[in-house]
Design goal:
Low-confidence stretches: 112-120
Helix content: over 70%
Strand content: under 5%
Radius of gyration: 23 Å
Structural class: mainly alpha
Number of strands: 0
């Protein structure tokens, strides 16, 4: 595994954070976030051998840096309209959140898997569990064929139930996304995303980790299915209204390649080119998506391409920290304090998790999930008119539910879960079933929780759906449904 990537990423975090801090307009407040960022960089440098690139703790540390440390330092480069006292109070809450995230890493018993004897390892290999299954290659062609048909069927259902034709969805992807994210249709849309991720995992794994002889032996049609996978991904991606559907498969494929192959300079250059190209594509798509009357004339395309900036567009996406400031400003305005907030909403959030799958026509009083609710309250935006919602950070979601205690508990819960998962990662990385669960369900969870929050109803329900569907797929592709009798 590529521990050198962890070293280089840690060094980059350290140097980039120091540079941003030196230009900060609020050095006293930025000092809280330089502490967070420097910790992330130093931690990766010191423990690089135990934290390979894209492992669970690597993803947690990277998510903390990108969504908290870097976002805050970048935001504090310019003068903000928030008072210094407000920014200082919020930074203290962020320090509490960060400590609760990082604490389990140091105080969990045996953070990394201890070295065991060969007899213990060989004995454990005979133990079957959900995390120790390998795929039966002869099932994969049938699964990939069936899953592609299912994706086509689900997209047709979304178009039918939203009263969009494909051309109409192509012209107005944001409107289609808004309609396809209502009620139970949101689960169909999430299922389409998940199937694309499952297929990406299978195709990438068998392309990057299997020899040509093995592929030929089992007659795996990886090239053919990869072609159809990319075509379907592009066709759905341009009407989905989501940029993540383009970037997530690319990141996942790069991660899978790095697990099974040593990276060379030429490989790093190739991956860098692919990553930059993907950022350019989603930047162009963002401009197209946000203009309902986009004209595909050469002049319009040329004008849009000239405005594309692959640096600023991703930076504007890192807005959960900035929006959390607006959230805490709203809390302070409504309740006159941040530290004695007692209007807890944990019960309502649990209720919304239960009622989320039911249509609003059946339960008219059903509430909205956290991002939609805060978009309405913080920005005074009518939900029936707004086509977008904003991320306010997992810290805001936790605070809304249970105040400072919620921030502390959610951080501890996520930190403990990631440490447990990291230990399983070091132990079961070579098993297909565990790696599929990791890549399709757990891989982006640290980032998702820090950006959205676990209790953001649609995300919380989505985790359960991902686990269920991934478990079904693991069963289907790892079970021998037929056997050949020897003559």
């Amino acid at each position: 595994m590529n521990s050198k990537l962890s070293l280089f990423w840690g060094l980059f975090i350290f140097l980039a954070s120091a540079t941003l801090f030196s230009f900060s307009s609020y050095s006293s407040i930025a000092s809280f976030y330089i502490f967070i960022s420097m910790f992330c960089g130093i931690f990766l440098i010191v423990f690089r051998k135990d934290i390979p690139a894209f492992s669970p703790i690597f993803m947690l540390i990277s998510s903390i840096y990108v969504n908290i440390g870097f976002s805050a330092l970048y935001f504090l480069l310019n003068t903000a309209h928030f008072s210094e006292e407000m920014l200082k109070n919020i930074s203290i809450i962020y320090i509490i959140y960060f400590i609760s995230l990082a604490l389990p890493v140091f105080f969990a018993n045996q953070m990394f898997i201890p070295v065991r004897s060969m007899s213990e390892e060989s004995e454990e290999k005979h133990k079957k569990s959900l995390f120790t299954l390998n795929f039966y290659p002869k099932n994969l062609n049938l699964y990939l064929f069936g899953s592609n048909l299912l994706i086509i069927l689900l997209v047709l259902l979304l178009l039918k139930f939203t009263d969009f034709s494909y051309i109409e969805a192509l012209k107005n992807p944001l409107n289609f996304r808004f309609a396809a994210s209502a009620g139970i249709l949101a689960y169909i849309r999430k299922l389409v995303f998940l199937l694309f991720m499952l297929n990406t995992f299978i195709l990438a794994k068998y392309s990057f980790s299997r020899t040509v002889a093995e592929v030929q032996e089992f007659k795996l049609k990886t090239g053919l299915f990869t072609f159809f996978h990319i075509i379907l991904l592009i066709l759905f991606g341009i009407i989905s209204g989501s940029r993540s559907i383009f970037i997530l498969p690319v990141l996942s494929s790069i991660a899978i390649y790095s697990f099974y192959n040593r990276l060379k300079i030429t490989t790093i250059i190739s991956f860098s080119f692919i990553f930059v190209l993907t950022l350019s594509i989603i930047s162009f798509y963002s401009a197209y998506r946000n203009h309902s009357k986009f004209n595909f004339s050469p002049q319009q395309i040329s004008s849009t391409l000239s405005k594309i900036n692959i640096i600023t567009v991703p930076l504007h996406r890192l807005d959960s920290y900035k929006n959390s400031l607006y959230f805490f400003e709203y809390i302070d305005r409504e309740y006159n304090t941040l530290y004695y907030f007692k209007d807890f909403h944990i019960i309502n959030q649990v209720k919304e998790h239960i009622f989320q799958p039911f249509p609003r026509s059946m339960i008219p009083d059903k509430g909205h999930y956290f991002s939609s609710l805060m978009t309405e309250k913080v920005f005074n935006s009518e939900l029936n008119e707004s086509k977008i919602t904003y991320n306010f950070g997992g810290i805001s979601n936790a605070f809304w539910n249970f105040g400072i205690a919620g921030v502390l508990l959610e951080g501890l819960f996520l930190g403990i879960a990631v440490v447990w998962l990291h230990r399983r990662f070091l132990e079961f990385i070579n098993y297909d079933s565990f790696f599929m669960f990791l890549m399709t369900t757990f891989f982006f969870i640290p980032n998702s929780i820090i950006v959205d929050g676990f209790w953001n109803t649609m995300d919380g329900c989505g985790y359960a759906l991902n686990l269920l569907i991934t478990g079904i797929v693991v069963f289907l592709v790892s079970t021998r449904f037929y056997r050949f009798k020897k003559v």
